[in-house]
Amino acid sequence: MPGQNNLLYRYLRRLLRFPRIFPMEYNPSSKEVLEREFLYDLTRENPGNCLFGRYDEQKVLAIAEKAGLLRGMARLGYSNPILSLSCSDPADQRICFYAGEQIRERLLLELRLNLSNFHPKRKIGPFGKEACFRMLMLLWLVLSDPDRDFPLDRPRLPGQNHPGLGLLDEVFFLLRTFARELSVDGMLDMPEHFHTALFYSRTFRYLDPEVEGRFLAISRDLKGVPLALASDAIRRNCLFDRSTGRPLPWQASEQVMTERGLLRKFFNSAEYREARDEARSKTRAIVNWDLYREKLSSGDR
Mean pLDDT, to the nearest integer, of 177-205? Predict the structure, then answer.
């Protein structure tokens, strides 16, 4: 019976100390689904090409519909997008949507994920290197509108080939659904660009409160600068601290969307707020525009 299978599955997980792939209240609709997930967790085999051994195309489409992602694509003229799952590599689970034809030039969305344990590389707040969190890793995200050009008031951002779809909130809803059902501590990303970190900051915060404080200071001090220009200047290492005259190099660091437990408690703690606010108050960011122009004229990338 499904109930007995579920009890057996949870007992074996506790016995073997495997992380849960779904919360306790989850009831698989069939024995086949239960066995498929268990096989994936034990052996990383995924003969059904299901996301994390669990979500087939029908399930992903249902969640995307609930998130408003499909409706958002339809509003932009992309009704009935083609979904493609590429889940043979456990460390790189991919969801792609295409407009009409499954080729790179018609890509609407590419989402690459990993489900793994995360250990801080250094002491951060109460967490040392021995700390371990079950995280949904956001390895890569592209939202692309292949049929439109960049508008004059929103020029190309670093790394962009096409304008975005404006559906980031819907993608976050999708990710939150996965995170809740997979029973993880949170989602983790390491944005390469300032503009990416700014977009994600709607729901993500840097794990290190000092990094969060510096990021907030940069966002504050460059508020009047067009985003594409600000992000490109930061990418070219033209950002400086106004107070010290020293460079403020951009370094990728862990941004986290917390779901539960100790991470959420830390982000809500006085310790986090005080360290963040101190770093923000100490940082005064400014772009060296002369240096930026020199790098542009010299072709420095």
Answer: 94
CA distances from residue 100 to 57, 58, 61, 107 in whole angstroms, order as listed: 17, 18, 16, 9
Which two structure tokens, joined as six digits, stand for 110?
């590419």
Query: What tens digit of pLDDT does each residue of 234-280 get?
Result: 999 999 999 899 999 998 999 999 878 899 999 999 999 999 999 99
Angle at 113 between CA 74 and CA 59, to 5 degrees: 50
Residue located via tokens 């290492």:
237
- Residues 82-131: tens digit of each pLDDT: 999 999 999 999 999 999 999 999 999 999 999 999 999 889 989 998 99
Q: How far apart are CA 238 and CA 286, in angstroms?
A: 9
| Strands of the 82-86 sheet, one edge to the other | 82-86, 93-98, 107-118, 133-143, 186-189, 255-258, 205-206
pTM value > 0.85: no
Task: Give the whole-angstrom CA distance, residue 138 versus residue 265.
Answer: 22
The angle, 0 to 180 degrees and rounded to 10, between the axes of the packed helices 57-67 and 168-182 is 130
> What distance in Å separates the CA atoms of residue 132 and residue 19, rounded to the nearest whole number?
12
Strand segments, DSSP code E, in the chain are: 82-86, 93-98, 107-118, 133-143, 186-189, 205-206, 239-241, 255-258, 285-287
Q: Which residues pair with 75 in a beta bridge?
A: none
Q: Which residues pair with 111 in a beta bridge?
A: 95, 141
